[in-house]
Amino acid sequence: MIISTGTASGKSLAYLTPAVASCLDGGTVLYLTPTKALAADQLRGIRDLRITQVRAACFDGDTPFEERTWVRKNANYVLTNPDMLHRGILPRHAQWSAFFRRLRLVVIDECHGYRGVFGSHVAQILRRLRRVCARYGAQPTFLLASATASEPGTFAKRLTGLEMAEVTTDASPKGSTTVALWEPPLTELRGEGGAPVRRTATAEAADLLADLVLADVRTLAFVRSRRGAETVALAARAKLADVAFSLSHQFGTTRTVPTGPALPAAPGRPGTVETAPATGAGPGTDEPLTDQPRADRPGPGSPASDRVGSGLGLSGRPGAGQPPSEVGGPAGPQADDAQAWALPEVSDLPEKVAAYRAGYLAEDRRLLEKALRSGTLMGLATTNALELGVDVSGLDAVLIAGWPGTRASLWQQAGRAGRDGQDALAVLIARDDPLDTYLVHHPDALFGRPVEAIVLDPDNPYVLGPHLCAAAAEIPLSEDDLPIFGNTAATVLDTLVTDGLLRRRPAGWFWTKRERATDLADIRGGGGAPIQVVESSTGRLLGSVDEPSAHTMVHTGAVYIHQGETFLVELLDLEAGVALVSSAQPDYSTFARDITDISLLSTLRSHALGPGTLNFGEVEVTRQVVSYLKRRLQSGEMLGDEPLDLPPRTLRTRAVWWTLPASEVAALAEEGFDLGGAAHAAEHAAIGLLPLFATCDRWDIGGVSTELHADTGLLTVFVYDGHEGGAGFAERGYARATDWLTATREAIASCECERGCPSCIQSPKCGNGNEPLDKRGALRLLATLLTP
Ligand SMILES: [Zn+2]
Ligand SMILES: [Zn+2]
Questions:
Q1: Minimum-distance ligand to the CA of 763?
Q2: Pairwise CA distance, residues 357 & 431, whole Å
Q3: Is the pLDDT of residue 193 over 90?
Q4: Torsion angle, CA of 521/526/527/528, rounded to 10 degrees?
Q5: Which ligand does the CA of 198 lie closest to?
Q6: In this structure, which ligand is nearest to the CA of 679?
């Protein structure tokens, strides 16, 4: 069964109840979660129940060796992660025989994290688990818990290989949430090809955070990197310090500031932020809170263009750029009828904002929770790391700097606001990216429609192969085992025998090598010999990156973010398989740019799309990372394009592509459009929008566009899965092509720039320096393709 409901809807209780019952009944329970931190939190929760018959323990990389035997022999509730199940538990199943024999329930928590290539690996690990259980005569129930997802039963079946019942009704009490979609303005800064640069989401988040804290609204800001979170916290504190300074000069140490009658009502009580009409905007509220240049804003017709002061009903607060005379006297007759606004101790204002660092000890996290609850802390900027391990239920508002990738994550983050069923505020701040642009202009894409499906492809032969080896090493494989591993298992087994990895004997397939079969599968990477990321000063191994991703993520000069921490890559040595990095605080981010060539191997499916054709099939991609782009962190300003010398890589994967017949192309050319530029622009935007339909990141996919492709002989635009063998993303694009390309066209049309910018058709990873691009041509091309 899969339970797929929102944050704080009581999912834990739904699996804890049968889990505890299983233990009381003499059975055992296996609990799986993507991270060690979440397992540790769950363990604490179970121990707090104080049921002596439940002997719960974590079994992961952090479990001391001397404790492991105890866990295997005595624990009846084992909490672990897929990595440990893959490497530590399944290969030594004999030592766990007593546990497996009594296994009643397998809980798979936060299972929406198992998507793409990682999800495909986990799917195979779960098939191995089912086979091992069967060996010991156990047939456990699989109970999955997920954030809201579309078609959760289908996903759960792909993940476990079992028929699944779904529970999707959330009956928990909740207040309403006002959601603001926020588009930062274009600035006077100029980027590639003279394109305008939008104000960054982090700069806007800092302004909003300061404003909300001033209004006594407890706020959490989600920022992508820890460095970004720290920047937001610092900028918000600086703003609050300014306010504190101007207030202390006006009022001395007065704590309560009455608002004059000329000003609109003070903001509502915490938890009841309303969207007030813009008419109440006090003088000075249009003042930018930073000295960054700003381009002219569109007129008042565009709701997203209103500043916080007017848009959120928080205008008229003292300070923040208002001339002192507008605030009203410190005490006067009007104070009686005006709403009093209790300000915090003015000098403490900056102290009310902090950045959350992952890796806090449990005690520190409890302190932080307490400070948030008591109001000593009013604003917290954090990465998603906070999703695991801190209970921050007492919040009024959530700021989300940049689209978090999926509607599921958006609602999960927004769900952090709203304490005790009270109303709440959530603000999504757009980054300069086509998907963000599309979403802030199309609220209908966020509201009232199901969240996206979680996509994975367990049949990917590059994923399946290593797990068949691992399964054979656990218990030799027989013909009877094949159905559990899917339709492609037989073919993949033949290849493994040919490659000398498995031996075929009358009794089945055997692993006869001395090495550990589990080393073949790099479950968090994408296959291939991984590159080790090592801190040069200490020799500390930070992690590994699969070889294909290494070219884009840890090339020499790259800014590499690991668990929210920022590093600079000093050297990528492909031969030694090492990237040397050092801790750094550069004020820019980097984007690897590649040039791509693609050839068609086979067409698996195709159908007509308008006057053109839509296809899905296998391709060979040759990619070469040629340079990297540096962009200033705070402003988004382009700092330069540095060349790189890396070898080309080939990738066999799956792609979706569309073609347009020569007659249509000729007609468009006659209208004066640059067809190459139009196809290129459509490709960039389509890559940006696919994550709306498949749960992938724009970096998981790539594209090629050409006016005339050698294999098709036509104008062709390809979008391919960036992982060996494919990950299911292009397949999803094929299935949802009309919606996907319609959204692509609308994203381009929504952007107010004239000839293209990073918010619509420019791509930070374009190896051709975003040349040529034809914005109007792309709109025409997509319109032609979408003609019914
Ligand atoms: Zn634009
Ligand atoms: Zn490009």
A1: 2
A2: 23
A3: no
A4: -140
A5: 1
A6: 2
What's the gap in Å between 304 CA and the centre of ligand 1?
16
Give 84's contacts (C-beta < 8 A, 6+ positions apart).
59, 60, 61
pTM: 0.68
What spacing in Å lies between the alpha carbon of 305 and ligand 2's midpoint? 30
Task: Report the side by side order of strands in the sheet with 559-562.
Answer: 541-545, 531-535, 578-583, 565-573, 559-562
pLDDT exceeds cutoff 60 at 338: no
CA 382 to chain CA mean position, Å: 14
Pure H helices in 280-433? 308-311, 362-374, 407-414
Ligand positioned closest to the Cα atom of 776: 1
Report residue 608 CA to chain centroid gap.
Answer: 33
Which stretches of 210-294 are assigned E, i.e. beta strand? 219-222, 256-258
Q: Which ligand is nearest to the CA of 771?
A: 2
d(CA 415, CA 419): 10
CA of 679 to the centre of ligand 2 (A): 10
Determine the average pLDDT of the residues in 323-338: 36
In one letter, which amino acid is 191? G
- pLDDT at position 630 over 70: yes
Q: Which ligand is nearest the CA of 196, by number?
A: 1
User: What distance in angstroms lies between residue 715's CA and the mean position of ligand 1's atoms?
Assistant: 24
Is residue 13 pLDDT above 70, yes or no?
yes
Q: Which ligand is nearest to the CA of 681?
A: 2
- For residues 147 and 168, what is the distance between their CA atoms, to the nearest angstrom? 10
Type and span of the H or E element at 228: helix 226-251
Report the C-alpha gap between 95 and 72 in whole angstroms.
Answer: 7
CA atoms of 534 and 652, how far apart (whole Å): 29
- The answer to which of 416-420, 654-658, 726-730 has the lowest mean pLDDT is 416-420
Band of pLDDT at residue 510, cut at 50, 70 and 90: very high
Q: Kindly give the distance from the C-alpha atom of residue 683 to the centroid of ligand 2, in angstroms, as a whole number.
A: 8
Q: What is the DSSP letter of 702?
A: E
**Cβ count near 53 (within 10 Å):** 11
- Interval between CA 564 and ligand 1 midpoint (Å): 29
Per-residue CA distances from 527 to 256, 489, 519, 530, 666 (Å): 61, 18, 11, 7, 43
Which tens digits make up the pLDDT trace of 19-74?
A: 999 999 999 999 999 878 788 888 988 999 999 999 999 998 888 888 999 999 99
- CA nearest 11: which of 42, 52, 34? 42
Question: Cβ neighbours of residue 129 under 8 Å, at least 6 residues apart?
Answer: 30, 85, 90, 106
How many angstroms is it from 623 CA to the middle of ligand 2? 13
Q: Which two tokens stand for residue 78?
A: 């084992």
Helix axes 36-48, 11-24, angle to 10 degrees: 60
Q: Is the dihedral of CA 156, 160, 162, 167 positive or negative?
A: negative
Task: Return the structure tokens found at 75.
Answer: 């624990």
Q: Which ligand is nearest to the CA of 770?
A: 2
Nearest 10 degrees: CA dihedral of 545, 548, 549, 551? 110
Q: Per-residue DSSP letters for 435-500?
A: HHHHHHH-GGGTSSSPPPBPP--TT-HHHHHHHHHHHHHHS-B-GGGGGGG-TTHHHHHHHHHHTT
Tell which phi-psi region holds residue 610, choosing left (phi > 0), alpha (psi between -120 and 50) or beta: left
Q: Which amino acid does the sequence have at 394?
A: G
Across residues 12-24, what is the average pLDDT? 94
Q: Cα of 767 to ligand 2 centre, how many Å?
A: 6
Other Cβ atoms closer than 10 A to 217: 26
CB 209 within 8 A of CB 399: yes
